[in-house]
Amino acid sequence: MSTVRIRYTMLLIALAVCTQSWAQEAALPQDSDSAGGKGAAAFIRKVFTLIDSMSVRGLDRRYIDAPERPWQFIVKSSLNQSTLKMHAKGTIDGIHYEATPYLRTEPSRYVGLWAGYRGYGLGYTVNVGGDKGSYLSFGATGGAYGLNVRLHSFENNHPHYDLNTDLIADEYKDDWKQMNLRSPIKVHTIIADGYYLFNGKHFSYAAAYDQSVIQKRSAGSLMAGGMYYYGHVDYASSVNGDLIYLMQGLGQVKLWQGSVGIGYAYNWVPTKGLLVNVMAMPMLTFVNRIKGYGYATNVLDLLEDPIMFDDDIEDDEWDDWWYSSLRIEHIADRTYNSGMTVNLDARLSLTYNFDWFFVNVYGQFNNFRYRHSLSHGHINDWFVNAAVGLRL
Prior knowledge:
twelve-stranded antiparallel beta barrel; mainly beta
């Protein structure tokens, strides 16, 4: 039998810098339009002043300092990989099988820009190699708190897949491990995480991850955090009907998870300008919902077709017949609560600060687990960023 097809689970910066033009008070009369413009400029100045004060409020300046240049413009390159591992059991004509789809993307390369003011900014990266995809990110950091949101979309048409069953002859089992799909897997994820530092006076998370402030001395902090995760994995296509049948009719999966945790982070400053950060936070997932989309297929009918037993048919002809004949039909949706589980958020960062620019490399790893009935699985998502930034 030929390979089964599956699909994978789960601008540029538009930050406007307002320039201010001022009329000399003695030279020009103030009409309503100019007064409105002056009021808007005054409001913007107040917002920036507030952000300036929030970025250093409560900090011990012997440990943490704010650069004189408040803007950060960063060119970054990223390497990313995501995996979904699911486990399901079933029988076909009394023959037991265990399916373990290990849907792994190839490491994907992204390039993009990030711009921010005192740690408040936006970033956008696009794929230049590997799976098709893009990232949109938002960050906001203060002296003792931070919020980060990351939206990731990508497609994959060559996942890895493991199937343990006597349904497949030994000589064909290797064909199932690496597949080239006729219809790619579409994955959309959203990760939002926030944190609070109990030692924000001496330790700065922003110094390691958006370089809006500078850590001058080594320090660590206990931290509390929360995370929201949404993932949508969609492989509901007719040419994936055989996979959907093996997955007991499951063709799409949506996951929602809400987690809280306590972790620890440490900033090591071995020499002036150099910063090494390590952070780890186990998280208890208290919201853990899965929505499964069920589909009926015509796989059993095709398995009884006489062409299945025709030894004279070529593989290409068999493939054309099989995939042109597959059909799926959406029949039901069902939402499950999977109960509590433990996930992990871990990060590592290396930064070197010069006078008006900096270089940074950092990586992040997230692990999300779920379980329902006889099915269980996990999603791993990791990335490594390399960046060069300017302060203006």
